[in-house]
Write a structure and sequence with these properties.
By secondary structure, the chain is an all-alpha fold. It has one domain (2-432). Helices cover 74% and strands 1% of the residues. A two-stranded antiparallel ribbon has the order 1-2. Strand 1 and strand 2 form a beta hairpin. Helix 1 (2-19) packs antiparallel against helix 2 (24-37), helix 7 (108-125) runs parallel beside helix 21 and helix 16 (286-304) runs parallel beside helix 19 (343-360). It is globular. The model has no long low-confidence stretch (mean pLDDT 84).
């Protein structure tokens, strides 16, 4: 009886977290409390179900990215682009491409908050409709999140659940890894939309955007130091397998050392524009930390009840043949992730695939990757499934532009479907040739 109650409660709570009538982390926390009160799990089990390694990675990298942002990293990127082009169209697509690259290291919502206001400002200055270039920037900020084991929660799940290491995202078993598969898809999409977007501006680009890219000497100094620490942390994370240290310990410890160094220089008056550590902590997305912590507990509850094992058993007949299993799981994942927030789905599927590998001895790695890629790209269809797109919508409206649901989603749905088709072709070839 408790097993059935656990499943019903899980589905209700996950549904409410997806719908979001109130703060999602509060809904998740309430669901965890109910699971404990009903005797489905114990308080100790709730604590043990949380993947503290993933949360340490998230918090650590958010701290590092906060210092990079305070040091004007986006503005510096734009300044570098302006020195090499006089085409407004090239500048906008360089920003879109940069958003996609930065999102491999920084939370995608944060990337939207960084890049979309700059794109909107450019469009307002030259009196061009900002909808398409801004939405493309939001889509790019969500696109490459699974490219490396840093920017999004999904690759970190792949590390802790499936055992993927940092370099597996680059080259996996002698085949192109997640970075190259998504990058190929991303470049195809950018080339398609580059031909569609038409902007004309014959004025002086440098004077037009000078206020956007102005960076002080203090910020330049802080950026050099931030990049040095960031690269150091990435190198150590890539060597995790040899060091034998959890990724969370590397990311969190590196972030604390960086914070100590920056705070010391700030107190000495060397980095006057660098925010104090208290402001950095206030700027972190703590709601997301609680959201993921409660999500781990909820999934752990139905895992304990045996529902994940049952799901794995039902999938086994289809996944034994990759020519059948890969297309089926890819497009099922795409369908689900296009209408729901996909973190819960990914977590459940990864747990299911792990259980399938242990009980049936199947090689489920092609399925791990296909679920991750399909869910990420399909989430770009609607604002329901991708928080980054919702933030993009609000930023455009905040500037006084009226957006219809049809106009917004005519861009996102077409982009998601096209990217899914190209990505599926690449995915199928990578794992079947």
């Amino acid at each position: 009886m408790l097993e059935l109650i656990a499943l019903i409660l899980f589905l209700i709570i996950i549904g409410l977290m997806i719908w979001g009538p109130i703060e999602r982390s509060v809904i998740g926390g309430f669901g965890v409390v109910l699971m404990i009160l009903l005797g489905i799990i114990t308080p100790l089990e709730a604590f043990e179900f949380v993947d503290w390694n993933i949360l340490a990675i998230l918090v650590g990298l958010w701290i590092v990215s906060s210092y990079l942002i305070a040091a004007k990293m986006p503005e510096t990127l734009i300044a570098a682009v302006l020195k090499r082009t006089k085409s407004l169209k090239a500048v906008l697509f360089a920003l879109i491409f940069s958003a996609g690259m930065v999102t491999m290291f920084v939370d995608n919502v944060l990337v939207v908050l960084l890049f979309c206001p700059i794109v909107i400002t450019i469009c307002k200055t030259i009196k061009v409709d900002p909808l398409l270039p801004t939405v493309l920037t939001g889509l790019a900020a969500n696109f490459m999140g699974v490219g490396l084991m840093l920017g999004d929660i999904t690759p970190q799940m792949l590390h802790t659940i499936a055992g993927a290491e940092f370099m597996d995202f680059v080259i996996f078993n002698g085949r192109p890894g997640s970075f190259f598969v998504l990058l190929m898809t991303f470049l195809i999409m950018l080339s398609i939309y580059y031909k569609r977007v038409r902007f004309e501006y014959k004025g002086d680009m440098s004077s037009l955007l000078s206020s956007i890219v102005e960076v002080s000497e203090d910020a330049k100094k802080a950026l050099k130091i931030s990049i040095l620490f960031f690269v150091g942390i990435i190198v150590l994370m890539s060597l995790r397998k040899f060091l034998g240290v959890p990724l969370g310990a590397i990311a969190f410890s590196g972030a604390l050392v960086m914070a100590l160094f920056m705070e010391t220089l700030r107190k000495l008056g060397k980095l006057k524009e660098t925010p104090p550590f208290s402001e950095v902590l206030c700027g972190l997305e703590w709601r997301a930390v609680f959201y993921y912590a409660f999500l781990f507990v909820l999934v752990g509850s139905i895992e304990k009840a045996g529902h994940i094992s049952a799901l794995a058993a039902s999938l086994q007949p289809y996944l034994s043949n990759i020519y059948v299993g890969l297309p089926m799981l890819y497009w099922v994942s795409a369908g689900v992730a296009s209408i729901v927030q996909f973190d819960a789905y990914n977590l459940t599927m990864f747990r299911t695939l792990k259980d399938l590998a242990l009980t049936q001895g199947l090689d489920v790695w092609p399925y791990y990757w296909s679920v991750a890629w399909a869910a990420t790209l399909a989430s770009e269809a609607t604002i329901v499934s991708a928080p980054a797109l919702y933030v993009t919508w609000t930023l455009i409206e905040k500037e006084g532009y009226k957006i219809s649901t049809k106009a917004f989603h005519s861009i996102t749905v077409r982009f998601a479907i096209t990217s899914l088709i190209f990505n599926f072709i690449i995915t199928f070839l990578v794992f079947t040739l």
